[in-house]
Amino acid sequence: MLLGVALACMAVLAYTYLGYPVLVVLLSRLFPMKARSDTTYRPHVSALIPVYNARQFVADKVESLMGCDYPADKLEVLVYSDGSDDGSDACVEELAARFPGRVRLVRGDKRSGKPTALNVMRQQARGEVLLLTDIRQPLSRNAVSDLVARLADPEVGCASGNLVLRGATGAGFYWHYENAIRKAEARFRSMCGVTGPLYAMRRADLPEVPADTILDDMWIPMRLRLAGKRLVLCEQAIAWDQAFDDEREFGRKVRTLAGNYQLLSRLPGLLFPFVNPIWFETFSHKLLRLVCPWVLALLLAATVIAVAARSGVGPGGWGWADVLLGGEAAFALLTLLGSRAGKLGNVARTFVVLNWAAVVGLGRFLRGAQRITW
Asked: Bridge-partner residues for 45, per DSSP?
């Protein structure tokens, strides 16, 4: 029985982290979705940027938008200052003076979080299309044009940009792996969400976002997906960012995973094959990732119990459990060494950090302890 439990656990882990990525890449090549794009589609666009104490990023971000190849008279930038007190407001006002009529400051007197910022900016935006983006990441010159061109297709609900991370941290490696899966999903039939720092949608498709929403960049697009709209990826529309080290990535990932639990509780249709048009991708990519920490714990428990009971010992005195426990110990050592063990150590450490983040994220969701403000 213990061997059966161990094999089942290893099968789940292997499918989640290796089998599904290979399968979805294969599906994307065998059954590619036809991409529709219309470069003559040029509606008025409002870029919405929520900010809290990000003075050092304001100028670069706004200037990257002003430098985009989209018609200047059809692009405005709204910056919502969520109670900033570091001079961010003054920076935005200077930019508004440099780009009159194209840059506006929207002031929030107290910190309320990104959902509130989006709701306020949506009411004040003039654009037919909304470009949702974060303050830290500058954009490629073609980003706005490419995203808007994909929205010419009425079947598309959100057009997502591509986040490119700089840096050789474990989190950077993980993002390359994760991004490859997203690209394959998008080429197959639809993404399971969007890239939070850069995506576009029609203003009519953005509802009032509940003020306590943890992951607006999952809640908004997945509601549209349940309604039958597609989520597409524009690989050439790029937002650049720096890869975090594992300590900073842990906090970000806890928030993301707590938000995933909240998302499933609020959009339970995602759990059912006949309701969710991308249930296979959602189950394989999102749901199993939430289960994997407990599968890892079960695998370790089965291994330890089998070793203690000397279950499955062969003629040489070694059994499957001894071999498996030795592998688990070697992996734990790699995790402890981290970067001192090279790339393999970085990957092992990041794997453990991300799975532990799922456990912590569940605890925060259940206690209602995850902060909405950033």
From this structure: 75, 129
φ/ψ of residue 48, rounded to 5 = -110, 120
Q: How many CB atoms lie within 10 A of CB 163?
A: 19
Which residue from 221, 179, 180 is spatially nearest to 199, judged by alpha carbons? 221
Amino acid at 344: L
Tell me how far apart the alpha carbons of residues 150 and 148 are, in angstroms, rounded to a whole number: 5
Helices (H), 31-128: 55-66, 88-98, 114-124
* pLDDT band with cut points at 50, 70 and 90 for residue 343: confident
Q: What are phi and psi of 276, to 5 degrees?
A: -90, 115
Residue 130 near residue 209 (C-beta atoms within 8 A): no
Q: CA torsion 72→133→236→39, rounded to 10°?
A: -40
Angle at 307 between CA 306 and CA 312, to 5 degrees: 65
In angstroms, rounded to a whole number, what is the distance separating the alpha carbons of residues 224 and 155?
Answer: 10
Tens digits of residue pLDDT in 128-171 = 999 999 999 999 999 999 999 999 999 999 999 999 987 666 56
d(CA 66, CA 86): 23
CA neighbor of 117 nearest in space, from 126, 106, 129, 104: 106
Half-sphere exposure of 226 (CA within 13 A, CB side): 17
Mean pLDDT of all residues in the chain?
A: 91
CA dist 85 and 83 (Å) reads: 6
Q: Give all strands (DSSP E) within 93-251, no chain letters.
A: 103-108, 129-133, 156-166, 198-202, 230-242
Q: Give the Å distances, CA to CA, from 85 to 15, 61, 77, 269, 347.
A: 48, 19, 21, 41, 38
Give 182's Cβ-side CA count (13 Å radius).
22
Is the Cβ–Cβ distance between 345 and 338 less than 8 Å?
yes
From 125, 56, 66, select the one nearest 91 (Cα to Cα): 56
| Three-state DSSP class for residue 29 | helix
What is the tens place of the pLDDT at every residue in 103-130?
999 998 888 899 999 999 999 999 999 9
Distance CA 246, CA 25 (A): 27
